[in-house]
Amino acid sequence: MSEADRKKWNARYEEGAYVTRQHPSELLVDRLPGLILPESGGRAIDIACGSGRNSLYLARKGWKVDAVDISETALEQLDEKARAEGLSITGINRDLEQDLAVATDFLVADTYDLAIMFRYAHPALVEPISRALKPGGYLIVESHLVTDADVVGPRGTRHRVAPGELRTAAAGLDVLVYSEGIVLDPDGRSAAIARLVARRPE
């Protein structure tokens, strides 16, 4: 993304974009209880966290969360919420679409019990994120999918994954759940989504 993209996202959050989108991802809520994870919450990373709805969900369950996004404004707003509730969330400001080595310099090997990336299509990130998982750690991804259907989300294909692309990106992981199709969001709108739950081999 360019500096213009950063300014665009900052402006959206300053204007109150996504303020009503506070619910955590259905996939995260449904799948988290079935994963073999630390009982009191471990260490997680939320890639392209946006307003932080999923970071907040995890932190409220006792997780220590690193929240990554291009928008300083979004991270500042998330920090205010975390401080008000005494939650452990650390913001990391990165442009994830610059040179991959630079964009992922914060991903230290064998660090996280859980990594999540929701509604952001960047399959090339799956491999460096996977390295940052501890052996046995989990990755949960939900990306907009290329479709001809009338759905919410990015227009065109730049910010959508092609059919099968996300699963291919997770080739080095044990894939536990994979699906592609149209889902109904809590606000009643349809979305074309690819969903992945995978585990780093121990």
Structure description:
This protein is α/β, with parallel strands linked by helices. The protein has one domain (3-199): Vaccinia Virus protein VP39 (Rossmann fold), CATH 3.40.50.150. Helices cover 28% and strands 28% of the residues. The chain is built from 7 helices and 7 strands; from the N terminus they run ααβαβαβαβαβαββ. It has helices at residues 3-14, 26-31, 53-60, 72-85, 100-103, 126-132, 165-169, and strands at 43-47, 64-69, 89-93, 112-118, 133-144, 174-184, 190-199. The chain has a 7-stranded mixed sheet with strand order 3-2-1-4-5-7-6. A hairpin with a 5-residue loop joins β6 and β7 (190-199). The protein is globular, with a radius of gyration of 16 Å.
Present the secondary structure layout.
Blueprint: H1 3-14, H2 26-31, E1 43-47, H3 53-60, E2 64-69, H4 72-85, E3 89-93, H5 100-103, E4 112-118, H6 126-132, E5 133-144, H7 165-169, E6 174-184, E7 190-199
Parallel strand pairs: 1-2, 1-4, 2-3, 4-5
Antiparallel strand pairs: 5-7, 6-7
In brief:
The chain has about 200 residues and is α/β, with parallel strands linked by helices. The chain is built from seven helices and seven strands. Helix 6 (about 125-130) links the parallel strand 4 (about 110-120) and strand 5 (about 135-145).
